[in-house]
């Protein structure tokens, strides 16, 4: 009996240790997820355009294909790759963050300049003469490429915030981030692309007049909702990209952007400002920095990279 009680005591101790480990992983995942939230908004804002113009019956299968590829890229490619990079070349993390942040700044600034100058943004919606199967294949490939870039940035930002030395804890936190963010983003995307169909269904079949009116309202409101989400996604892209570049440069001891934004934020908010006000001003300044950096990168990309890209049209 004493041996049995000792065994139960050991099991209870192991259970407590496991529970503490799970709590630790959850806490680190929540912290890392908060740092990556802007990228999630951008990811959710970008994806719905890839099902525009395709049959309604194919919308959810397309979202499922992109979500599956996103989960595989996060868990199979990015998670082990980033852990190996942190183990053997930790100095490469900050430059990778700067590269990804600069890409987000470029994308966000380009969208704003296209909107201001009246140019149509090149995207999947222009391929209207291709048959549906080929168009779907092109859309899925394009979405997977875009998602991979955003996923790499999400996972890299998350890894940079995990301040534990244990390899398995870092891996578990990254796995939680990968699964939860994929489910969140593509769950929201699936809801967005089907909500107008739900509204149409309610407007035609509901017995109550109020429910039919709600259905018509959903159909009418969705274009505006998607436009607002796109605007929010662009703002989040600039804010997150600018913030990543500023803080990564600070890590590499190039501190003037960080010191400049911090001093301006302190001068604007004053000493007695709340945390929310200080955060809002800092986020706005990071977005301004991101827009300026992206605007500088636009001619660089078009002058230097686009001519090179012409040599590899299949890429």
What does this structure look like?
This protein has 9 helices and no strands. The protein starts with a helix and ends in a 5-residue tail after the last helix. With 315 residues, it is mainly alpha-helical. The protein is 83% helix and 0% strand.
Output the radius of gyration.
23 Å
Strand content: under 5%
Q: How many DSSP helices?
A: 9
Helix content: over 70%
First-last Cα distance:
70 Å
Describe the sheet with the most strands.
none
Give unreliable regions as ranges: 10-21, 123-129
What would you call the shape? globular
Chain-wise SSE layout:
Layout: H1 2-35, H2 37-46, H3 59-88, H4 93-117, H5 132-161, H6 167-205, H7 209-251, H8 256-269, H9 275-310
Helix pairs in contact: 1-5, 1-6, 2-5, 2-6, 2-7, 3-5, 3-6, 4-5, 4-7, 4-9, 5-6, 6-7, 7-9, 8-9
């Amino acid at each position: 009996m004493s041996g049995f009680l000792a065994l139960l005591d050991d099991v209870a101790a192991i259970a407590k240790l496991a529970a503490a480990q799970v709590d630790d992983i959850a806490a680190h995942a929540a912290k890392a997820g908060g740092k990556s939230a802007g990228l999630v908004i951008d990811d959710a804002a970008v994806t719905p355009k890839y099902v525009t113009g395709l049959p309604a019956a194919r919308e959810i299968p397309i979202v499922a294909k992109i979500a599956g590829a996103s989960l595989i890229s996060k868990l199979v490619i990015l998670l082990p790759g980033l852990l190996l990079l942190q183990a053997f070349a930790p100095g490469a993390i900050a430059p990778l963050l700067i590269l990804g942040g600069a890409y987000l700044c470029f994308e966000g600034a380009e969208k704003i300049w296209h909107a201001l100058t009246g140019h149509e943004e090149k995207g999947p919606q222009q391929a209207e003469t291709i048959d549906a199967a080929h168009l779907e294949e092109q859309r899925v490939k394009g979405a997977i490429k875009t998602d991979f870039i955003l996923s790499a940035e999400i996972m890299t930002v998350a890894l940079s915030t995990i301040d534990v030395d244990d390899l398995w804890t870092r891996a578990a936190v990254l796995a939680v981030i990968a699964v939860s963010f994929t489910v969140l983003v593509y769950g929201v995307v699936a809801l967005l692309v089907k909500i107008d169909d739900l509204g149409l269904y309610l407007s035609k079949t509901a017995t109550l007049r109020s429910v039919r009116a709600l259905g018509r309202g959903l159909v009418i409101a969705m274009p505006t909702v998607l436009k607002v989400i796109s605007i929010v996604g662009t703002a989040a892209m600039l804010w997150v990209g600018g913030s990543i570049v500023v803080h990564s440069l600070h890590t590499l001891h190039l501190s003037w952007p960080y010191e400049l934004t911090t001093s301006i934020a302190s001068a604007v908010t004053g000493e007695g400002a709340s945390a929310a006000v200080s955060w809002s001003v800092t986020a706005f300044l990071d977005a301004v920095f991101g827009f300026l950096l992206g605007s500088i990168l636009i001619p660089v990309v078009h002058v230097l990279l686009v001519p090179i890209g012409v040599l590899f049209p299949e890429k």
